[in-house]
Amino acid sequence: MTAKTLMIQGTASSAGKSVLVAALCRIFRQDGFSVAPFKSQNMALNSFVTREGGEIGRAQVVQAEAAGIEPVVDMNPVLLKPEADSRSQVIVLGKLFKTISAREYYKYTSELLKTVKESFNRLSSAYDIVIIEGAGSPAEINLKEREITNMRIARMAEAPVLLVGDIDRGGVMASLVGTLELLDEEERNYVKGFVINKFRGDIGLFQPAIDFLENRTLKPVIGVVPYFRDIRIAQEDSVYLDERQDNPAAAGLDVAVIRLPRISNYDDFDPLDEEGCRVRYITDSAGLGSPDLIILPGTKNTIRDLAFLRQSGLAEEIIRQAGDGKPVIGICGGYQMLGKSIHDPEGIESTEKEIPGLGLLNVVTTFLPRKSTVQVKAKVVADRGLLEGTGNEELVGYEIHMGQTGTDESTGAFHVNETPEGKVDYFDGALNAQGTVLGSYMHGLFHNSGFRHKLLNSLRRRSGLPEVQHATAAGKDTEYDKLAELVRSSLNMALVYDLLKKGIDRR
Q1: How many domains in the chain?
Q2: Quick one: 194 and 295 in the same domain?
Q3: Whole-structure pTM value
Q4: Looking at the structure, do residues 302 and 337 belong to the same domain, yes or no?
Q5: Which residues are marked as active site?
Q6: Is the pLDDT of residue 182 over 60?
Q7: What is the torsion angle, in degrees rounded to the nearest 10, for the CA atoms of residue 222, residue 227, residue 229 and residue 231?
Q8: 394 Cβ contact list (under 8 Å, min separation 6)
Q9: Beta-strand pair 293-296/328-331
């Protein structure tokens, strides 16, 4: 069996390709098809660990969830995780391949294209439909000869392309027409229609622009998708942090997440928004204020972002507030920063062999070449302070980190007891003697609803706020269904299905 294919490309990054793919995955699943997402090469700091221990982009996990299937590395065979100085970790089939510069990377693209094709073929043989996501723009002239993510993939997969433009940023007509003009004749033939995304206002007033675009290009506008904020879908691109809005100041707990320059996996904190917290992303000490909780998130480069904390004055302010009993939580790289020191004997992140941490937890981290990528199940074992009342709560999450941080039964916050490979027995994280500073390697910690509710009520008690009852939040399936309903009503689905049926018409 060979799957029907459809590819979503954009005029630029953040045009809304990922969310549109997720919506189509859900729509086709609702219509009775088996469907899988595919993005040959992704560049993102938000990543996820699959059951087999492979690291892929977070967007493909969201799309797989929308499709109702387990995420696997074939859905994103090449993942680039940017580091400092124009270098990136290159993750191939879920495992670290190399850390190299962009110039060096392009030496490997022909080799990587073979891996990409093998991954696509495995998906194509297993599903009815494969929805492919492009990256950036197909009209990047300097990259066209070396790219393995846009038109080269459309040709490989024989996939008709829908070109998406973001009207909210302005200039959508110029970006759609201009992108088409910069493609060669064969590439233009792959583009079968347009989707205009993030529309606000009266669609009737926009009709003359639609007519112009269709008359100019002789290609149809498949649909106009409204701008939305009330559907909770995990975001991969950090542009989301620029566009997001804080909950009103009147919301209960005030949570300050430090927006590190290389912040990763910030969807860890989406559930706090959903429980009525005011979640603020902070870049300087003046904006920190006096929150009820300070969070140090994950980062792609712990040492450089620790230097940022010191240069910005945030380190001094966090240490001061923690000394006054302010609750502080660090996840992954943020956990490493909270310790006494970070050792980097092999120069994984720095030329310095030892860097002092913030000294808020009695742990030491050592960077080693081996990267830990694993899904975990755990239980809370430190039932005191911030964790009071959470004892024995069962947790699920995943770890992605280079460093190893020493902890044991006397200091560990959580006991990890299972991975997909079987039973294990080790401790994760640490809680200080006062119970006010907590660190953990576990991404997804706050997605555990029972634990999250008890932790937040513990914080409310500390801040003199009333506790709240544990209301059952709408599940992910509800959100994906809402997204599918919005997009289905915005697109000409008959045309979409016609494209799937016909594929590429070369006449």
Answers
A1: 2
A2: no
A3: 0.87
A4: yes
A5: 332, 443
A6: yes
A7: -10
A8: 377, 378, 379, 448, 450
A9: parallel
